[in-house]
Design brief:
Organism: Mumia xiangluensis
Radius of gyration: 16 Å
Shape: globular
Protein name: DUF4126 domain-containing protein
Largest sheet: none
Distance between the termini: 14 Å
Strand content: under 5%
Length: 155
């Protein structure tokens, strides 16, 4: 693949991983564990963190994702994901961080809107949460696939 595609691909992957972080904050950062040179232990820890978050999201005491602290955490997770993906692929600039943070913000609001629409239908919340989990995991996987097939750029 030509080197010119790598920065665009990293930018897109950062936005998509950010969307995943908007759904489940740990999903974007876990992508970076599998793209970089992270140890097996770190990968296992990251996957465990995702599993804990997937369960924790279903608990009645889980705070609203659009509250200041949870939303800030998701946006930061998306931005950090963009930085780490760019670093792993040797892409310079702040745009991947901005794309990741923006994706996380959009994903947070989209997820909240989805869950609110589902709740208005009078159906139980658990199926909506599981569907949202599946979408967020799919987005994280798409981001991983995009950058895992990109050769390292010297840009």
């Amino acid at each position: 693949m030509p080197q010119g595609h790598s920065p665009r691909t990293v930018l897109l992957a950062s936005a998509v991983a950010g969307l995943a972080s908007g759904g489940r904050s740990s999903l974007g950062p876990v992508v970076t564990c599998f793209v970089g040179t992270t140890s097996s232990w770190a990968r296992a820890g990251a996957v465990t963190g995702v599993a804990v978050e997937l369960v924790g999201d279903k608990l009645p005491r889980t705070p609203d994702r659009l509250g200041l602290a949870p939303l800030t955490g998701r946006v930061v997770a998306g931005g950090v994901t963009g930085v780490l993906l760019a670093r792993a692929r040797r892409v310079r600039g702040a745009l991947p961080a901005v794309a990741g943070a923006g994706g996380a913000l959009a994903g947070s609001y989209a997820g909240a809107a989805w869950r609110a629409a589902w709740a208005r239908s009078g159906r139980p919340d658990l199926p909506a949460a599981i569907i949202e989990d599946a979408v967020a995991i799919g987005l994280a996987y798409a981001a991983y696939r995009a950058v895992s097939s990109v050769p390292t750029s010297s840009a």
